[in-house]
Fold these 2 entries.
Entry 1:
Amino acid sequence: MDLVKQIEASQIRTDLPTFGAGDNVSVHYKIKEGEKERIQVFQGTVLQRRNSGLDETFTVRKISSGIGVERIFPIHSPNIDKIDVNRRGKVRRARIFYLRGRSGKSARIKEKR
């Protein structure tokens, strides 16, 4: 095996749950403020997962005070404390950017049974 792939394999996290586009997740993210470190929760809908291996990322969107906020998280980051899957969404595509133009009832996603 290639040396780079060996190092990447040792860095990949296996303790995270499986999730995909349309799922509602809570991402517990470590934030450093000077000397202190705290955990902030970012809860929203997963719009996409992209890439693979160590550089895999996912985008989460939430509505905060009527304004859409999106954040991109690297999956294998040591700053992610944990990811909780709140709801599994039933969507037909891997990237659901159409949610950006919708609000209210049309922005709802059905739950998987």
Entry 2:
Amino acid sequence: MPTYDYECAKCGQFEQFQKITEEPLTSCPHCGGEVRRKISRNVGIIFKGSGFYITDNRKPDSGSGNREAANDKKVS
């Protein structure tokens, strides 16, 4: 279940565990004040695998004569 950040007009910020399908809270569970859901910044991204190559998201160089060396470089 994701954690959502809320800001209460009376008592400040708090976090709430909710299902994705649940509606956002409209009142604070602590004091009953008006709340608004904030955009969360605690996104857990996990990169799996051996790594990313420098050429994965680049357009090929049209004038470069050293393409073999560029294909062998790995970015970790």
